[in-house]
Design a protein that fits this description.
transmembrane helix; single chain; mainly alpha
Length: 61
Amino acid sequence: MRLIRFVLALIVLGLGALWSLQGLGLVKGSFMTGQTQWLYIGLITMLAGIVGLRWASRSRI
């Protein structure tokens, strides 16, 4: 179960990073490219991923 939590948190963190980069306009090819709202959504998602990683690493099972 701990591994599943860890992998899910990494996926959330990766999606947040991708969305942030698209919001900054560094990753092209999407409707999200260059729109700053996706930068903020990505940053919040990355924060959720970091919290998830901490939670996964602290769980006993």
